[in-house]
Amino acid sequence: MAAPRKYPDELRERAVRTTGRPIAHVAKDLGIHKEALRGWVRQAEADSEPFPVSTRRSL
Fold first, then answer.
1. What is the C-alpha to C-alpha distance for residues 45 and 39, in angstroms, rounded to an integer?
2. Helical H segments across 1-59, by residue range
């Protein structure tokens, strides 16, 4: 069983939306670790990217 999340989903969403500023500043303002926020931002970016089109050729 996975451990419960330390931060609520609402805080994660708000933090990711606020990243027009430096990550370290946003993290300090919200009282979270900057590396936690950096990971959330990277995950949000990965989730928002469309799936790559297959480059495999049919034979």
1. 10
2. 9-17, 23-30, 34-48
Q: Minimal CA–CA distance to 33: which of 6, 9, 14?
A: 6
What distances in angstroms separate CA 31 from CA 3, 24, 37, 56, one per listed residue? 21, 10, 10, 46
Global confidence as pTM: 0.69
> pLDDT digit string (tens) for 2-59?
777 788 889 999 888 886 889 999 999 999 999 999 999 999 988 887 766 665 665 5
Reading the block at residue 21, the tokens are 């500023």
